[in-house]
């Protein structure tokens, strides 16, 4: 890929200049002669409760060779570097694996963005200054890195959802007109990952249709932004909520609308428009990882969550002209022959293939399946341990290398492995062993 | 000096008086020693400071009889000239024969309480109240107590007693839960000069204070002076801090009619400077500009007063009072949990109107039966106001974004969503106690507390429809305690065994809308939780030698689940758990008190205690793997276990009557105590120090008195104190950036007692080296500050 090629050229130049890039010092720096890249493995430590991940995040980098080598064992809890974040950090890694981006989640430095050079092992050297997006997006922001060569991160937020007829202050307690809508204020913010600064932001309300709003529907959260192929629109996933306009109560179950995404102009971040699928009715905001991916065919594929009873997750298609393709119906329930499949996270790899992490029915156990977006089929990856304690709901990061997807798989409190999943052949190999601690779990191989 | 203030009085012409201080051979001041003119009814007893005075004596020759239980009686022949003010200090000899029979008598209330066997410390406020000091500062100096305040005067406070904190520590005023009064009459607002003393019980709580206090109780005893007096003080200092208080007592000696009244006023801008890595203005592009700034939204005002009318020492009552207590406060809030983002315009106001009735009678109906009753009816209101929607920087200016527009707060207002929340509470608290003394060695104590709180809230920022659907919560608690106290082996052993019965009922009433056949109907969804449980404990002290006392106490302590823990919170996807059990902690204290040792000149007292707090069934919320779901899921459950082991020690040194040094140390390990996961593997956190616990503190306070330095009969006191808190991590992962700095904060003060003993002027300098002081991570407390205070007292008017 272009970036890796650039990296190769860069290191080549350094090699010519210093003749220092040789295999021997692979432990201290990237080894360009092998076109090597770092894989950052992340683990979440427990806080007060097993599996809560609230104890913080530890990271450790190994070479790609080591990551796929079952002879190697990795213990982030003993050897890793703690990420400066009060709770589970929201980390992202550059496409070449050599730079780590973090936005601290909650705590004194919540909303603080920092960039680290990955040096292997526990060596993460902070580059440049820190930048806080807390004023714009809060101390627990949702953000994603665009697949634009690591240039941009997008953070999103919805604030202060209230009824239009809620009084602004105590004195205007008089009748404030009839109910029209519940709406919050959206913030869309662009972060320049290279220059380490906020490069733009917009704050506005995003209306739904009048009928939907009168019924009490509103966008509760935005997440999982992705750039379209042309690079002129951002597609942002939504998490919907509904209030009962007659009581103001938040409803826990309701007749869901079709899945909605917000489309905004890029790079201006203006002109928000809502698009609605007629195929599925769940949300498309992901949880701690992205669920919207641009494929080589120019379409954006999106997995749904919080699907209404029995519907199960769908993968939806958004065409290059930024509209849902409602003729594309890919039900994971059907493809997997299961009931109430719920996609916890997923990752597109290439050539129409990707992997979904899901649970089904009442069970909290996670499974992994290879999906073919063109054939609309899914096949369970049987090699991933069938373990009731495998719960990947906090899973954040995958590492894509060519056809391969690397994934860290550990049941809570048990050892596991990095798995190397070949999206094209379906081949599965075990990579490095992951040493776990009770109550903890690995949340990514980036 | 306080003791002398009591001596100041108006003397009729020609009459004589005798006064002085009564000490033991060891130099300890002795209260309760009677001094009478033999053959007359003229006489008096020494007070807690050992001072006595006999007034209204006609000139002539007398024989003075000085006696007290445990001491050999003495006679002194005196001769008084017209108008003579005789000063006579007396040293009492211990009567060993008597002493073996009765040890308790002749001791101060402080000593008496501290020797009951409980892990208890008594903080006397008399001396300190002449200085510019807050009640919370006084508490913080007490051994084993850590007060953590989120800023300056009026900011929120959390109390840690031997590693237990939050809602496991209960605070009482005269035995009544402080929630009866609310924030406007709290340890933040009550000045030390209105407080007689503060009893701090750690881990094991006596029957008369029974409540579901898992970790300990702090009981503030308001002043109940028995002599006519009027005290007033006013202080001014840094950050425009003004504090005034007045209190008085009048008793008509014929009818026993008594009036007690007091009032206070506190104000501070709290505009102290903050600086360092947490104080930064965020630029439009997100970068930091580290600044040194004054806090700008942190003013605090509180005022209040109380009047008690009644009768004291009459035939039908030792004390009977009907009273009113009213208080009001205004509190600006500068920031949330961390000071990294300053707020503007967030504030709260609160008021409380409390009516009370108290009755106390010894030998009620029959000899040996003592009755006490204290009832309060309270109407509390609180408003939380947060509607400003912009971000502000540390200069109090709107933060401007890249577009040139002010940036909206991410949640709509300063701390969260905009709110104008009116919370009204009606609180009824009744505590009654019955004590029956069979004889000097056997006593039964029964105590019952009834507590009910009805809470209604209305957020005026919600639409009219939404406000109609806000629920109410009613909580009722009944706590009964029965204790049996015994003294044996010539009173060398004192033991107290007690049981407590806790009962709690909570009603949740939520208006809901039911939809039937297309019609909507408003109705109520009522849920009730009714829960009761037992606890029991034991406290004992054993006198090995006259000056060495062993202390042992243990309790199976209980904390009832809170409303949120029982009913959950639909907004946060937490379902109710009606079956949730109370938190239980097995608390244990073993210690000793020794002293006073030394000769008349040097005197030492030592106290040390080790403790264990083994908490089970701790209420926590299990991780919810379906947090992502829209449906409600996991409730609170009894899953957690923690353990705290540590010690505390206090050393007191006195040189003659001039120098007084108090040094206290507390150190503990508060650890996560859940050991194995479902697979039998040991958790990483097992035995790891819980984050955010200040586990090692040292406090010291020294006072030096010089008499007659500037004027004859004047006194000048010098004070020095320091507080040391070791650094601690605030997160589970031991990240250096999330570790608090080591603290060593020093204060000095001086006070001058004028010869007429009515005026005392004091000057204080706090945090003299202007260190960055932190109780909580990333929340700076005031730097160097100066205060001046004037106290005025009249006695026996």
UniProtKB/TrEMBL annotation, chain A:
Signal sequence, renumbered to the chain: 1-23
Record's keyword terms, sorted: Signal
Superkingdom field: Bacteria
Protein name as catalogued: DUF4374 domain-containing protein
Native source organism of the sequence: Marivirga lumbricoides
Species lineage: Bacteria, Pseudomonadati, Bacteroidota, Cytophagia, Cytophagales
UniProtKB/TrEMBL annotation, chain B:
Major subcellular location class: membrane
Membrane topology: Multi-pass membrane protein
Subcellular location: Cell outer membrane
SUPFAM superfamilies associated with the record: Carboxypeptidase regulatory domain-like, Porins
Alphabetized Pfam families for the sequence: CarbopepD_reg_2 (PF13715), OMP_b-brl_3 (PF14905), Plug (PF07715)
Domain TonB-dependent receptor plug positions: 114-217
Protein name: TonB-dependent receptor
